[in-house]
Write a structure and sequence with these properties.
This protein is mainly alpha-helical. It has 2 domains: 33 residues; 195 residues, hpI Integrase, Chain A. 57% of the residues lie in helices and 6% in strands. It contains 11 helices and 5 strands; from the N terminus they run ααααβββαββαααααα. The strands form 2 sheets. Strands 1-2-5 form a 3-stranded antiparallel β-sheet. A hairpin with a 4-residue loop joins strand 1 and strand 2. Helix 2 packs across helix 7, helix 3 packs across helix 7 and helix 8 crosses helix 10. The termini are far apart. The mean pLDDT is 85.
């Protein structure tokens, strides 16, 4: 390569590197302005009216994928952003979350115990989740073009940011674990047993499932409606 060619190549490379660093700083600044401190999930479970309102305020495909994906699978945010195409079986309509996978994302690289390995929170979290109609088309479309969620939603922080901005537009506090908890109450409202809820959510303590069944209030209301009008 000539001296001029080297100069042009170097200039282009430096320009792209400068743009990349500038975009990274802008994103970091935006994320830092959002408070990502953990909130108590049970105090912020979504009602059906709130869910409908949030859906009306979705503006971007990534927001839709994230909101529907978390709400109708009950995945932890770490599970969701690590989800890959080979986890999904569209013939049997199932998602199979493995116990661990190799991963080179920044979070997994920094893990001192299991570097470059992503692992579920517990053994029970390696589980099977049905693909519901609410997410079937969205997952099918997304994974036809991409091999993993991290192509578009690259980190937990980015997921928190997307939900935060969506929640601002809808006037609802919104964060990932809240959607997981809301999914548990949706299952309880449809009278899934505590053991079924335990299995789908990947919990280890049956008391957790019982708490969400109690919080939903659906079974008590149905019992009152049937007996009171009898």
């Amino acid at each position: 390569m000539t001296i001029l060619g080297n100069y042009i190549y170097g200039s282009i490379y430096n320009s792209f590197e400068h743009i990349y660093m500038l975009m990274k700083r802008v994103l970091n600044f935006m994320f830092k302005r959002v408070n990502f401190s953990k909130s108590k999930t049970k105090e912020h479970l979504l009602s059906n009216k709130q869910i409908a309102r949030i859906k009306q305020h979705i503006e971007y495909e990534d927001e839709q994928l994230l909101f529907y994906g978390l709400l109708y699978t009950g995945m932890r945010i770490s599970e969701f952003i690590h989800m890959r195409r080979d986890w999904l079986d569209f013939d049997e309509m199932l998602i199979r979350i493995p116990r661990e996978i190799k991963c080179l994302c920044q979070s997994c690289k920094k893990d001192k115990v299991h570097p470059n390995i992503w692992r579920t929170k517990t053994k029970a979290a390696a589980r099977i989740i049905p693909i519901l109609p609410e997410v079937h088309g969205r997952f099918l479309g997304y994974f036809s073009d991409h091999k993993k969620i991290m192509v578009r939603i690259k980190s937990r922080r980015m997921a928190y940011y997307y939900l935060h901005k969506l929640g601002e537009r809808a006037g609802v506090k919104l964060f990932p674990h809240q959607l997981r908890g809301t999914f548990a109450t949706l299952l309880a409202e449809k009278e899934f047993t505590h053991w079924q809820i335990l299995s789908v959510l990947g919990w280890t303590d049956i008391k957790t499932a019982m708490e969400y069944i109690t919080l939903s209030g659906a079974r008590i209301k149905r019992a009152f409606d049937q007996k009171w009008s009898a």
